[in-house]
Amino acid sequence: MTARRARALLTLLAALLLPAGPVAAATLVVATTSDVVNGDTSSADALIASPGPDGISLREAITAANAAPGPHTITFAPALAGQSIVLAQPLPTIIQDHVTLAGLTAADGQPAVTVDAHLITVGLTPPILVAASHFTMSGLRIVSVVGLFPGVQIQAGQSEVFGAAPQRVRNIRIEGNSFSNAGLTAPAASAIGVGGGPDPINVDATITNVVIANNTIGPQFNGGVTIGIRGDNCVVEDVLVYGNTFSQVTLPVEIGPGNGSGGQVRRTRIIQNVFDYSYNSIALTGGGGDLRAAVGNRLDDTLIERNVFNLNLDQAIELFGVTVNGAGNVLSNTRIVDNLIIRGPCPLCPIASWVPPPGANGSGGGIFIRDNDSSTTSNLVTGVSIVNNTIVRPAGGGGFAINVVSSGGVTGVIVLNTILWGSPGNDFSGITPDQVRSSIVTQSGFPGVNGNIAADPKFVDPTAGDFHLKAGSPAIGAGTSAGAPFGDLECRPRPALPAIGAYEPGAAGNCTDIIPLAAVLPASRSVAVASTATAFATMVNPGPATALGCGLVPSTSLPAAFSFQTTDPATNQPLGAPNSPITIGPGAAQSFVFAFTPTGTIPPTDVALEFTCANTLPALTTVGLDTLL
Predict the structure, then answer these.
(1) Of 393, 404, 347, 397, nearest to 370 (Cα)?
(2) C-beta separation of 207 from 242 below 8 A
(3) For residues 82 and 160, which has the higher predicted lDDT (pLDDT)?
(4) I need a surface site. Which of 50, 243, 445, 463 has the fewest CB within 10 A?
(5) Could you count the other beta carbons within 10 Å of the beta carbon of residue 440?
(6) Helices H, strands E: what count in the chain?
(7) SS (H, E, C) 152-218
């Protein structure tokens, strides 16, 4: 029985590795910078046979790929390295599944082919619009996005502006690209959009499993990555934003359904990004706007982890129940973990050529949480965990590091193992001492309560921006393990007695791009309140490096106690101590047993687990494979 269970789990995992869709592929090589169609675009084979006098253009390649089901790969001749393709109008909407758009990469690792959108000032679609699944884009430099819409837009569902797209779009990867509006005198447009059209007419559209990784975005964008579908009962789920660098972007990551009702954005993960000189770096909102009221939307299970925020002009992270014109919206279970937030006023920004957005006051806040504004009611922000962060203000002064403004709808905010330094007396507003544990704070009433201390954290060199801990820092070993992450900001495994703040002492960790694979059996459990339900899981390390400090954490918030333990895959007998992370070698697998003990009634829910390690990314969620109903 136990051997069969282990084999079943591994069989499920193997299914993740099988290629999806057709196996025959056409490769189209773009050979010209011209933006014309003069070849035979009736099919990929026809265009290869009859490309026109100037060779295949990017516009021709996309048109031909759209003529028949994929897979299709569009790449570029080496002679186009360092060249620019100036678009006269938006490219054709990508409508076929399994299309790969692969640019060139220079010796320095940067994209070597430029797509210039400066002529598209009033286009009715974005320069690159994707209305299909299984799409990958890499190695392109997108510049001068001055129109109304993002440089790249992923669309599901209906739009009177963009046209129709499939109701369900999935498996998108935007990786290793550059987006720049350098030379503009003010920010314009956005870089990447994940959602629908700008008009809120969509109903029941879904986008799932999107990876936006290792891109550079900025300067001079109004938005970096925007996530959410306007309309009714639409869903965006399992978006991973990692390894990106945002610089001089007004709002690098914005998550919310905008106008509409019943929308959901769930399990967004924002990991290992760098945010430099932005206005607000990350904003989560239940929606709002002047086109339609935002009613009954949800943002659930957002993870903001291992990011560096450098001298943002306003807040680094904002959580709003609604912006304007909305009611009954909920933000739940937001985890803010292992981040470095360097707060600073606008005069510290070293890039004088950037024009800050109107209203940027340089207050240099940290984390701001608010349920309602003066015109809205009944919006909720519940369950915000602020854990093992370092929030500093080298220049002193400024606003509050963590500011909560609530009309009764903000609940469940906790601050754990966090350093707040540089603004004496301005650590918190709207936070009480019982909400803060095992942290370094200066504000009166907090030190001496729940393990909080007032102390110099002894950073290595704060004037030079080095907020690692010196030997002898009072933060070392002073945190609590309950609720602490498996690793730190630089992927060092956390010991049993973790440090306070984003960093553990010692040599730098080995952060990797490994995304583990995971499976759960059985797929569902029923259990009474106060009884324990158990299930089995397997995590596989598919990468070439050792995965350190691996374990399980619930992504879905439940009224239940949770624990996990490693097992012997041959017998399913538990091994070691409960809740102890483990090392998984390259190509190896580890089995676990995990348990939920409900403390209250739980309706039928797909419970997502975070399979993660100190030096990897979390496994991508696949409902029915690595979730528990």
Answers:
(1) 404
(2) no
(3) 82
(4) 463
(5) 26
(6) 3, 51
(7) EEEECCCCCCCCCCCCEEEEEEEECCEEECCCCCCCEEEEEEEECCCCCCEECCEEEEEEEECCEEC
Contacts of residue 11, Cβ cutoff 8 Å, sequence gap at least 6: none
Cα–Cα dist 45/579, whole Å? 56
* Cβ contacts of 32-40, under 8 Å, gap ≥ 24: 32/56, 32/57, 33/80, 33/83, 33/84, 33/85, 33/86, 35/59, 35/85, 35/86, 35/87, 35/88, 36/60, 37/63
Spatial distance between the Cα atoms of 471 and 324, rounded to a whole number of angstroms: 48
* First-last CA distance in the chain: 22
> What are 167's two structure tokens?
């109701």
Helix, strand, coil shares, percent, the chain, to 5: 5, 40, 55
Q: Tell me the C-alpha distance between 575 and 567, whole Å.
A: 5
Q: What confidence category does residue 3 fall into, taking pLDDT thresholds of 50, 70 and 90?
A: very low
Q: Does pLDDT of 525 surpass 80? A: no
Phi, psi of 356 (to 5 degrees): -65, 155
Q: Are 157 and 205 in contact (CB under 8 A)?
A: yes
At 12, is the secondary structure helix, strand, or coil? helix
Amino acid identity for residue 447 in this structure: P
Q: Edge-to-edge, what's the strand order for the sheet holding 547-554?
A: 582-584, 547-554, 607-612, 627-628
pLDDT at 293: 77
Checking if the pLDDT of 394 tops 50, the result is yes
Residue 332's H or E segment, with its range, is strand 330-337
Residue position matching structure tokens 């000032």:
121
Identify the residue whose tokens are 């290595």. 460
CA-based nearest residue to 584, from 489, 493, 495: 493
- DSSP assignment letter at 93: P
- The pair of structure tokens assigned to 293 is 């009221």
**Distance, CA of 174 to CA of 294 (rounded, Å):** 29
Enumerate residues 6+ apart whose C-beta is below 8 A from 466.
Answer: 459, 460
What mean pLDDT comes out for the span 139-165?
92
Residue type (1 letter), 199: D
Phi, psi dihedrals of residue 175, rounded to the nearest 5°: -140, 135
Name 270's bridge partners. Answer: 241, 304
Q: Which of 556, 539, 542, 516 is nearest to 593 (CA)?
A: 539
pLDDT of residue 607: 85
What values do phi and psi take at 33, rounded to 5? Answer: -90, -5
For tokens 């994940």, what's the residue?
Answer: 194
Strands 547-554 and 582-584: antiparallel
Cα 129 to Cα 90, 153, 161, 169: the distances in Å are 8, 5, 12, 13
**Per-residue tokens: 201:** 């007419």
Distance, CA of 396 to CA of 195 (rounded, Å): 40
Res 345: pLDDT = 65
Token pair 């470095």 is found at: 340
The pair of three-digit structure tokens given for residue 277, joined into one six-digit string: 């000189």
Tokens matching residue 325: 């014109």
Residue whose entry in the numeric block shows the structure tokens 């990468």 = 543
Q: What is the chain's mean pLDDT, rounded?
A: 89
